[in-house]
Amino acid sequence: MNTASTFNILPLAVALLIGMSAVGSCIGIALLGSKLIEGSARQPDLMQALQSRFFLAAGVTDGAFIIATGIGLWFATASPF
Question: Keywords on this record (predicted)?
Fold first, then answer.
């Protein structure tokens, strides 16, 4: 079989894995930030507690993107399939 005529789907899969997780992470952090501003406007005295919880949740949300990026790059370089 000629290798020039075969279609390699691995770059598409890696791009979708990294792209979809980036979009999801951006949307999640944007919604989280909007709720932080809304909660700070409603309860200014709770701003410090809300801000610490925001950074914790943003780190967890961003962690999923970083893990997906690592797995995608591992697939792209090691090609386990």
Answer: ATP synthesis, Cell membrane, CF(0), Hydrogen ion transport, Ion transport, Lipid-binding, Membrane, Transmembrane, Transmembrane helix, Transport
The class level of CATH for 10-78 reads mainly alpha
**What DSSP line would sit under 8-42, residue for residue?**
P-HHHHHHHHHHHHHHHHHHHHHHHHHHHHHHHHH
CA distance 51 to 36: 7
Q: What's the pTM value of the predicted model, to 2 decimals?
A: 0.74
| Active site residue ranges | 62
Q: What is the pLDDT of residues 31-52, one digit of tens each?
A: 999 999 999 999 999 999 999 9
